[in-house]
Amino acid sequence: xxxxxxxxxxxxxxxxxxxxxxxxxxxxxxxxxxxxxxxxxxxxxxxxxxxxxxxxxxxxxxxxxxxxxxxxxxxxxxxxxxxxxxxxxxxxxxxxxxxxxxxxxxxxxxxxxxxxxxxxxxxxxxxxxxxxxxxxxxxxxxxxxxxxxxxxxxxxxxxxxxxxxxxxxxxxxxxxxxxxxxxxxxxxxxxxxxxxxxxxxxxxxxxxxxxxxxxxxxxxxxxxxxxxxxxxxxxxxxxxxxxxxxxxxxxxxxxxxxxxxxxx
Length: 264
Ligand SMILES: [Zn+2]
Fold this sequence. Notes:
This protein has 264 residues and is an alpha/beta fold. The chain has helices at residues 2-21, 40-51, 66-76, 107-123, 140-148, 186-202, 221-234, 239-243, 246-250, and strands spanning 28-35, 56-60, 79-83, 130-131, 152-153, 172-173, 175-176, 182-183, 210-214. It has one domain: Glycoside hydrolase/deacetylase (TIM Barrel), CATH 3.20.20.370.
């Protein structure tokens, strides 16, 4: 713990001081992926979120027990549930990047799949307004289907695309994935954090959010311990406080339900 604190001070300290000197603080939000049902790891995640009053957007796969998940999240408070794919199934042709939607899928079918996923969350009493594509694979057909349902999108990247104001990505993955998931390492993770903060400061993008990405089911002990040191420093805020409420923003009563268009 002391080592994590020391590294945070050494690597992020000078950059955060430059923000403070301009009376600014980075806008950080937190997304966690791959939830399907309540587990001991989920309990640990929710306890961490409560302890540091850090709201969390939990991307959940609709084929799980969303009812039980929603109940656990309601009890914890400060959790927004998002849709994380349909079955988190890799349907990419061999040799192509992993993804759930591919070139052979018809728009009408993807629109229907999305409608089914939305129903799962609605029935669990937690209507979703955000979609998080597994493997960050934003296939054009998926993008079109999301637009038809009025769903917002969250991927993984560096800076926000100005053409997509409601899109809020994650930027800081606390894990490395090859050959298997494990903590990225404090120095590596903090160096990326510093680089993205410096970029925002130099461009004057003080309010450009920075998204922390976690996967509670894959955390090793080092990851949990690092988060305990990192969360109180960056003080995440809720996604809603950044992108606003969809009803307030569009004046609509939640997501639209449109008849699927012909694929094309
Ligand atoms: Zn995932």
